[in-house]
Amino acid sequence: MTSDGTESYLPLSAVVFEILLALAGEDRHGYDIMREVERRTEERLSLYPGTLYRAVNRLLAEGLIEELEERPARPNDDERRRYYRLTRLGRNVAGAEARRLASQVRAARARNLLKGSTGA
Amino acid sequence: MTQPSGRNIRFALALYRTLLIAYPRTFRDRYGDEMVRLFRDRCLRTLQERGTLGFLQCWLRALVDLAMNAVLEKASFRLERGGRTDTSDCRSWQNSDKRLRRGDPMWQSLWKDLLFAARTARRQPGFTATAIITIALGTGIASTIFTIVDGVLLRPLPYPNRDRLVAVLSTTAQDRTGSPLAPPFLRDLQERCRSFEEMAGYSPSWGMTLTGSGEPVQIDAAFVSPRLFDLLGAKPLAGRLFLPQEYEPGAEPVVVVSRGFWEQRFGSGVAPAGQSIVLDNVRYTIIGIVSGDFRMPSRRSQMQQRVLDAVLFLPFARNPYAEVRRVPVMNVAARLSPGVNLTQARAELDRVARELELLYPATNRDIGLTAMPLREAMVGEVRRPLLVLLGAVGCLLLIACVNVANLLLARGSARERELSLRAALGAGRARIVRQLLVESIMMSTLGSLGGILAANWGIQALVGIGFAALPRIHEARIDARILAFSLLAAIGTGILFGIVPALQGARTKSVAETLNGFGRGGTEVGGRRVRNALVVVEIALALMLAIGAGLLVRSFWRLTNVDAGFAADRLTAFSITLPGTRYPQPEGRRAFLDRLVASISSLPTVERVGAVNRLPLSGTNTAVGVEIEGRPAPTRPDADVVDRRVATSDYFATMGIPLLTGRGFDVRDRADAVERVAIVNDALARRAWPGENPLGKRVRLQLLSGPGPWLSVVGKVRDVKHHGLDTPVQPELYVPYSQASVESLFVVVRAGADTPALAPSIRRLVWMIDPALPVNNLAPVRDLIADSVEQPRLRTMLFGGFALAAVVLAMIGIYGVVSYSVSCRTRDFGVRIALGAETGDIRRMVLWESLTVSFLGVVLGCLGSLVLTRLLASTLFAISPTDPSTFVVVSLLLVAVAILAAYVPARRATRVDPVNALRFE
Questions:
Q1: Among residues B66, B183, B680, B752, which is most buried (max CB within 10 A)?
Q2: Of B297, B319, B293, nearest to B308 (Cα)?
Q3: Which among B37, B41, B69 has CB closest to A54?
Q4: Using CA atoms, how far apart are residues B460 and B140, in angstroms rounded to an integer?
Q5: Are strands B623-628 and B659-662 parallel, antiparallel or unpaired?
Q6: B539-588 pLDDT, tens per residue?
């Protein structure tokens, strides 16, 4: 475990972690984040505006994500949308959370809890 | 995907945006737009993928999400404002309530209550969903009806100085509510009355024909007097309104058009200058477009509806009756002078009416004048039915509340342990009451938000099924007022159904008692009593609605079984108007009709063709004074009035109106015949010559131009219901078309084929003879009958729907209460069975209890109905508002429903195994 202070952010809530995951690949706007989270979780986690933006507000305040000054050029881009990007700190925190989860998964596997699930 | 989705989404968005107010301002400013956009995208996608139901689900979840996060955000926001803006303390963002301990104590605990309530609600999804759906149903229906009542009755008129606007009406001994005035009186009143600073008149046109492009159409126009536009605050959108000289008789023909008409006819881009239209063969220059939202004031009736729908405005001098003192066609509106009240104005109108009586004895004898607020004049007739509807909906809402209260009560008992534990740990009584109230208010608010959405659909649906005919219905829409009403209703109902359970729940006992399970029986008896009382109330309310519905259903059934006096099957009717400008001579009109009748008769399947100027149930009529030979001439125009009909010789046979004595019209009744003839209906014969044979008697009509020629009665026909199935038959006098030519006619066709098959051929035949004639109201005569009972049908349907919902809710209520009380008394039953009670005894005991409860409810409900159904009296036909058989049948029905609802839990009680029941000890 690194000592850059990321640990103090853990554990992350499922919603926060999913948002960070969604932003890890590319910069996205709110609706895009929502779609990405739904795609990844196969709609097991549906974000609604209140939850999403409250989390975004927190993440911005904590410096885990930042709002883009310039928006990426994309076809059909709605210019009023705000885009968000993962900060270095955000990337570190998400990584730390992933490692934390991974260690839990390892422990679960060692105790045969994952038997029957599809090899993950 | 779905048809009305655009409007619903717009509405949902507006509502969502409004609700964002729950968030702290800074948050809202920053993310509000984004959130609305996200919500919109989500809604659109869900609607596309999963249809309306998915959309509803999405909308509900978004609301819950909005509410919960608003609470959380606001809580942390308060904390930060409280001086501890400690952004580095970020670990607990998922745990905001941990931070709350440092906030302002009052708010802190309220937020805590809310959070706790939300968690409790989520833990019991079934209970929460039942409660929320019940409330959504109640508030949805209530908001729908309230929106309509608000739009029609409460919303101020869309005119300037509306508080001082009145309608001036003429009254007679028979007609106290008031009628329009004859146009020349406007001048007399303007000269004599000092109470009004402005006075103007208007009237509908009677079907003007617009020609020029495409098929000729009949179009609704209004004749307006000078100053009317000023009085009602109409402004030109383009061009100008009338100049004073354009109101003079003989002025150049000019017309002002509505925006809708303009855009439909000319598109929106063109300026009106120089455009013209042809109305009844006269070319009118369009001088201006009146602003888009301008609507004429009107009353609900066939003719007045036309004023409301007017798309063209003509100077009043164009009205054919503009100078006729006998024909009351002008609606007069006026604005009271500042400082003058209605009583003073009425006193002055009384005085003026007497002056005019002396001045014009021939036309004004016994005619009074009165004034009433314009709004009252516009909606007077629908006021009572709408208020009754509102009352019914209030009942339904109350029942929904009672049901939820029962649910909460039952759950309250189940939560007794939790609550006493909290009390033991130091929660005050007030704190527990508040906690429970917060829970119920939260649920009612969520329910009412769902209800508002439902109301938005409800209104569209109601306008769709025929409420469009209500005056001012177009002004009904959900806005801040309605939202306020619904939210207030939600909080009100939340408190109403929450307070009893909350107080019950706060009745503190020692922890030891509760945790040991003692004392359970003690509160249980008290709790059961309260719940039973609520069920009594519920049954009483449901019974009142059901009796109201029962009366309406029976009244409607009787109404639709009234014999109209003619055979409507296989009859098709349409109306045509031969404008005097192109058919100036009666001969021309007769030639046209003869050709038309001959050509329609030659169509295959057509059996007979007749024509009449006023078709039964079509909403048209002509009433004229009549003088009977050998009696003194009537002194007043309204003294001896008959409905005058002009009919062709085949009319009676086509309609299936039987001839009772004498003969029908035939070839002898030529235009140039010396003897003028008439046929009377039974009602006229009975009134004019009671007990005598009417054949050979003579009458003459008081026409506009003076007394007409003497007419010999040659036949008597059966009465038909002309004015409505629920209206008594009026005396009627038929004269032959050959001797009294009229411009407007209904042609009736009896054929083997139905209307849609006939319609194209009929239109083609009319246009073969005259391509400039509009064919209007082409429809089966059956539809006329159906239309005439449209309002009662609607009322019955709505009321029936409410009553059904009420009975279902009451049933759920009874079921819930009985099954809960059975489950609480498992031990009791177990002991009884162990001591040898038969299963039948147990079942009887449970059923007997609910029977007592429902009997009490029925007695209360009947008493309430005796008082309240009187309000329905004016809408009932041929049935008394206290009709005993309806009361008995509906009461028995409700008792049966109550027993049914109690039977399932009662059976469960008999299956109690005494060993299991006693093992709890």
A1: B680
A2: B297
A3: B69
A4: 13
A5: unpaired
A6: 899 899 899 899 989 998 998 888 889 998 899 999 888 877 788 888 89
**CA of B35: which chain A residue's CA is closest?**
A49
| Cβ count within 10 A of residue B892 | 11
Cβ-based contacts of B33 with chain A (< 8 Å): 80
B48-56 contacts at long range (C-beta below 8 A, 24 or more positions apart):
B48/B1, B51/B1, B51/B2, B52/B2, B52/B5, B55/B5, B55/B8, B56/B453
- The shortest CB-CB distance from A9 to any of B36, B72, B91 is to B91
Angstrom distance (rounded) from CA B473 to CA B466: 11
Instruction: Provide residues of B within 8 Å CB-CB of chain A.
Output: 27, 30-31, 33-39, 41-42, 61-62, 65-70, 72-73, 87, 90-91, 93-94
User: Is the confidence metric ipTM above 0.90 for this complex?
Assistant: no
Q: Is the pLDDT of residue B170 over 90?
A: no
Spatial distance between the Cα atoms of B139 and B478, rounded to a whole number of angstroms: 13
- Say whether A57 and B39 touch across the interface (CB within 8 A): no
Displacement of CA A71 from its chain's centroid (Å): 20
Distances (CA, A) of A7 to A58, A64, A90, B94, B378: 17, 13, 12, 15, 73
Contacts of B151 (CB under 8 A, 6+ apart): B472, B473, B474, B475, B476, B477
pLDDT, one tens digit per residue, over B278-298 is 887 788 999 988 876 777 776
Q: Judge whether A64 and A87 are in contact, CB under 8 Å.
A: yes
Q: How many CB pairs under 8 A join A and B?
A: 75
Distance between B89 CA and the closest CA of chain A, angstroms: 9
Q: Give the C-alpha separation, B713 to B764, whole Å.
A: 38
**B250 φ/ψ sector (left φ>0, alpha ψ -120 to 50, else beta):** left
Peptide bond into A11 cis (omega under 30): yes
Left, alpha or beta for B112 (phi > 0: left; psi -120 to 50: alpha)? alpha
Cα A82 to the chain's mean position, in Å? 17
pTM of the model: 0.66
Q: What element of type H or E holds B241?
A: none
Instruction: Judge: B38–A54 Cβ closer than 8 Å, yes or no.
Output: no
